[in-house]
Amino acid sequence: MKVGVLSDVHANRIALDAVLADMPDVDAMVNAGDVVGYNPWPAECLETVRRRDVPSVMGNHDRAVASGTAFRFNSMARAGVEYASEELSDDQREWLADRPDNLRLFDGRVRVVHGHPDDPDHYTYPKEFAPELLDDEDVLVMGHTHVQHHEVYDEGIVMNPGSVGQPRDGDPRAAYAVLDLDDGSVDERRVEYDVEAVQREVREVGLPEKIGSRLERGR
After folding, report:
1. How many CA atoms does the CB half-sphere of 211 hold within 13 Å?
2. pLDDT of amino acid 72
3. Mean pLDDT of 22-37
4. pLDDT for 45-76, tens place per residue?
5. Order of strands across the sheet with 156-160?
6. CA separation (Å) from 71 to 28, 75, 143, 171?
């Protein structure tokens, strides 16, 4: 069984479209949170994930939009949350509010969280990956850091597919992964997309310039 693993789409429709076009045939998809925030297409990205019935956990930007609170965010992140709050319908905000903090899928073999199994807002970078993060699942999927990485242990797999819409690992290409539950492998994948088109739309809708400029650096 092959599973397409997404995280941190962050309202980047052009990157999401590129990832979905590049993705090989899979049996299912999962999303480790933050469909919205930062970029200009929160409603379109949410509807794409919802229409495809992709099991999704709640990211910190998802929570901020759903709850109307972004006081802990910097000005750039807050601008994306406020923009998404204005763009989403009541029904779409309710969908965000209904996302759980963690999911157990495929007969409990895969656990999906946003930041950390014990704290959805904790940034679990690759240096913190360890078999102790695993409970009784075979695979733990995390997002939040926007850094693509995975480790295979005797106890199972700990992985982050990276960010679809705002990579921060020095590679500006959209990131995702394909998990093979049959052979216990992870295929980390990157795909080019039209960054300049996103930057133009960022300027057009009045979002902070840095949201677009950072995309070309993958930071």
Report:
1. 30
2. 78
3. 98
4. 999 999 999 999 999 999 999 998 876 799 89
5. 102-105, 110-113, 139-141, 156-160, 149-153
6. 35, 9, 21, 29
Contact at 8 Å (CB) between 104 and 113? Answer: no
The secondary structure element, H or E, covering residue 18 is helix 13-22
Residues 6+ apart with CB under 8 A from 22: 189, 191
Give, in order, the Cα–Cα distances in Å from 25 to each of 43, 158, 184, 202.
26, 23, 17, 32
How many Cβ atoms sit within 10 Å of the Cβ of residue 171?
15
pTM value? 0.96
User: Cα(145)–Cα(122) distance, rounded to whole angstroms?
Assistant: 9
In 52-105, which residue ranges form alpha helices assigned H by DSSP?
A: 60-67, 75-87, 90-97
Cβ contact 172:154 at 8 Å: no
CB atoms within 10 A of CB 66: 21
- Residues 149, 130: contact at Cβ < 8 Å? no
